[in-house]
Design brief:
Keywords: GTP-binding, Nucleotide-binding. This is Ras-related protein Rab-30. By secondary structure, the chain is of the alpha/beta class. The radius of gyration is 16 Å and the shape is globular. It has a six-stranded mixed β-sheet, sandwiched between helices. The chain has six helices and six strands, in the order βαββαβααβαβα. β2 and β3 form a beta hairpin. It binds guanosine-5'-triphosphate (GTP).
Length: 217
């Protein structure tokens, strides 16, 4: 039987097509799936990582971004230790929806949940949301911030490892959680990376409907 020191539940949310499934696949399987279908309901994967010599089991819940699954996905917020809210840096509407996602989070998640804002698809050259805008939004809403590319494996390992490290810290010193430094570029290292120049606007990457993937609750 597998031994582990901590088990943490991490839930990914955000609009359809922002790359939640690809981020999870990149991290758990080391691949960027071709023709990724839209998630149906909720999908679930496990990965055990080692942080400072301790084995940490991460239970990662990948929720469907599509509105019609909202009532199913909401029920997964409650027991999450960390919530990763993802938008697509090349698609403004996915960023504009963030306040709606935050309302959901406040309504359904534990108040102490660790919140991480992730701008995905940094490999794209048609960026619409500058890094600084994402960073400021995160700061305003008491979230960590990181930009990633599931496609190019940029900052994906870092995202999950730093969440694990932060959750370990919290678990070890519960009383100190309120003094946690959420200043984005500091201590825990979940910090923004350099931005790429914004180019032509386009949201073509949105919502891939071919359903090759089944929900796995
Ligand atoms: N260029 C680029 N495309 C990406 C990246 N991550 C995901 N995509 C593409 O974006 C599309 C949607 O990716 P998914 O991972 O299925 O998105 P999702 O957020 O899980 O979508 P739902 O399951 O519908 O909520 C797919 O065509 C992916 O190939 C990335 O880092 N860079």
């Amino acid at each position: 039987m597998e031994e582990y020191k901590f088990l943490f539940k991490i839930v990914l949310v955000g609009n359809a097509g922002v790359g939640k499934t690809c981020l999870v696949r990149r991290f758990t399987q080391g691949l960027f799936p071709p023709g990724q279908g839209a998630t149906i309901g909720v999908d679930f994967m496990i990965k055990t990582v080692e942080v400072e010599g301790d084995k940490i089991k991460l239970q990662i819940w990948d929720t469907a971004g599509q509105e019609r699954f909202r009532s199913i996905t909401q029920s997964y917020y409650r027991s999450a230790h960390a919530l990763i809210l993802v938008y697509d840096i090349s698609c403004q509407p996915t960023f504009d929806c963030l306040p709606d996602w935050l309302r959901e989070i406040h309504e359904y998640a534990n108040t102490k949940v660790l919140k991480i804002l992730v701008g995905n698809k940094t490999d794209r050259d048609d960026r619409e949301i500058p890094t600084q805008i994402g960073e400021e939004f995160a700061k305003q809403h008491d979230m960590y911030f990181l930009e990633t590319s599931a496609k190019e494996a940029e900052n994906v390992e870092r995202l999950f490892y730093e969440i694990a490290a932060e959750l370990i810290d919290q678990a070890r010193s519960k009383d100190n959680s309120s003094s946690m430094n959420k200043n984005l570029s500091d201590s825990v290292g979940l910090s923004p990376q350099g931005s790429k120049p914004p180019q032509v606007s386009c949201c073509s990457g949105l919502s891939n409907q071919s359903s090759s993937q089944t929900g796995n609750t």
